[in-house]
């Protein structure tokens, strides 16, 4: 079946990797990762699925890597932060919100897809720690621990339950996240 160009085709922005990733993210957010196909993505973009391969020659593998990079590679922003702990606290809260907003991509992070995106995030966190006076070895461990905490907590939150706590009743995920974050950040000691 040959798709007829729509009247709005001339008003659409040109196909780009960014536009493809945004459309894929919209599908994953609304329908789940399992519903993301190149055909469905082409329909959402109003192009033939093969047109996507011009921008993503490795196809769905490259698309999934791009989703992880888009969602997971959020560098820490130190503007307005009162010290390294405050900067990392702000990043953690923001990162958790980003992961919750795009929870369909979370399984890709947990399984280690696109480790370069996570490495870039860890490097950003390490830099904040180093500037805060944390030696390199401690900064590397603390950055890895913080990233693991935020991703792990969010994965449990998305599942809607914490391990071995069924009898406890409803969980206040915000309070639990803040308490755990305080434990992680307070355990980091400068030189």
TrEMBL record:
Domain of life: Bacteria
Native source species: Actinomadura macrotermitis
GO terms for MF: DNA-binding transcription factor activity; transcription cis-regulatory region binding
Keyword Transcription among UniProt keywords: yes
Family matches, as InterPro entries: Homeodomain-like_sf, HTH-type_TetR-like_transc_reg, HTH_TetR, Repressor_TetR_C, Tet_transcr_reg_TetR-rel_C_sf
Protein name: TetR family transcriptional regulator
Example GO BP: negative regulation of DNA-templated transcription
Domain Tetracycline repressor TetR C-terminal: 79-164
Keyword entries, A-Z: DNA-binding, Transcription, Transcription regulation
Residue intervals of the HTH tetR-type domain: 20-65
